[in-house]
TrEMBL record:
It comes from Ptilonorhynchus violaceus. Coiled coil: none annotated. Its EC number is 7.1.1.2. Residues 1-20 form the signal peptide. It is a multi-pass membrane protein. It comes from the Eukaryota. This is NADH-ubiquinone oxidoreductase chain 6. The gene is Mtnd6_0. One of its GO terms (cellular component) is mitochondrial membrane. Keywords: Electron transport, Membrane, Mitochondrion, NAD, Respiratory chain, Signal, Translocase, Transmembrane, Transmembrane helix, Transport, Ubiquinone. Core subunit of the mitochondrial membrane respiratory chain NADH dehydrogenase (Complex I) that is believed to belong to the minimal assembly required for catalysis. Complex I functions in the transfer of electrons from NADH to the respiratory chain. The immediate electron acceptor for the enzyme is believed to be ubiquinone.
Length: 78
């Protein structure tokens, strides 16, 4: 079990670094999804599955809406 938690924490850190270090929002959102999935798995392994579900619904939902908005603004030439 401890190996699984260490695996999830490594993916959480790598996902956070991917969000912070990518200038392109297309690749940054992949890091966001990886970090959020690892964080949710970490919370499920701790036994707080409801908080994990709230994290998926609120955090990823809100961030992906902001991502779609920023991509649509970047694609607009004016």
């Amino acid at each position: 079990m401890i190996n699984f938690v260490l695996f999830l924490s490594a993916f959480f850190i790598l996902g956070g670094l991917a969000v912070a270090s990518n200038p392109s929002p297309y690749y940054g959102v992949v890091g966001l999804v990886v970090a959020s999935a690892a964080g949710c798995g970490w919370l499920v392994s701790l036994g707080v599955s409801f908080i994990s579900l709230v994290l998926v619904m609120v955090y990823l939902g809100g961030m992906l809406v902001v991502f779609v908005y920023s991509v649509s603004l970047a694609a607009d030439p004016y």
